[in-house]
């Protein structure tokens, strides 16, 4: 199994699934969302070298035509990320399954499970399948945070789906054209992913970012909550699927996007979020979370 590139690892997180969890963020994403708050995870570093001279502590260098990051010297000022023109980061590390497993073992007594995120984690599904098989031997649960763009009904993903306890899926907007304008892709596969995973009993939560002035939030929340309600009712799950409504925030969003496509978008107020949560509950979903 080849090594894969990791953007960062959070040893202890309580926002990436139930309980205390290790969150592993994979580098690389097939979407290019306008409001992405971590655009440095979209592409892998192309070693252009533009970031090297701006580093105040010389933590970056070129070795054999590749940008190398000295983690010990780094002060995390993120100037390298700010100057990057490729929606990437030089501050990534290639890990093998064995190396990641060693890091997990060190904190396994303090966590309930691990969650893989990104970027888009499922682009590395073969690697994650092998990692999850080993993680389960430690008695830990396995969660995947995904944009839902990959059709997991395909047989090539069956082993991966089996090794995953639960999925958390984003649905950006219900309208197909609006979704393509926002991410670069349509959303038919996302909707199918939610239905497929929900019917399998492997869907932990669905999440929607509420963006006033850009998206039809009422339509999206209405249609998505109706779909979740139908899945909950049809399958009589032990635990109902959570619908999480996330306030759009400007933190981390690319400056040029803020000035252009998102110039009229601000974080939604409490009144708007409460109105949307009423719509969700009206579709017989009690587990609605606002963050």
Helix-residue proportion: 25-40%
Beta-strand percent range: 15-25%
Main β-sheet, in a few words?
A: 9 strands, mixed
- The rounded Rg comes to 20 Å
* Uncertain residue ranges: none
Indicate the structural class. alpha/beta
Mean pLDDT: 96
What CATH first level of the largest domain would be assigned? Alpha Beta
| Head-to-tail CA distance between termini | 38 Å
Number of domains: 2
| Annotated CATH homologous superfamily of the largest domain | Aldolase class I
Total helices: the number is 9
Description:
The chain has 291 residues and is an alpha/beta fold. The model has no long low-confidence stretch (mean pLDDT 96). The longest helix is centred in the C-terminal third of the chain and has 19 residues, at 217-235. The protein has helices at 79-83, 97-107, 125-137, 158-163, 176-183, 188-200, 217-235, 255-259, 270-282, and strands spanning 4-13, 21-26, 60-63, 66-69, 93-95, 113-117, 141-146, 166-170, 203-210, 242-247, 288-290. 32% of the residues lie in helices and 21% in strands. Helix 7 (217-235) links the parallel strand 9 (203-210) and strand 10. 40% of the residues are buried. The chain has a 9-stranded mixed β-sheet with strand order 5-1-2-6-7-8-9-10-11. Strands 3-4 form a two-stranded antiparallel ribbon. The protein has 2 domains: 4-40 and 94-290, Aldolase class I (TIM Barrel, Alpha-Beta Barrel); 45-91, Alpha-Beta Plaits, CATH 3.30.70. The radius of gyration is 20 Å and the shape is globular. It has 9 helices and 11 strands.
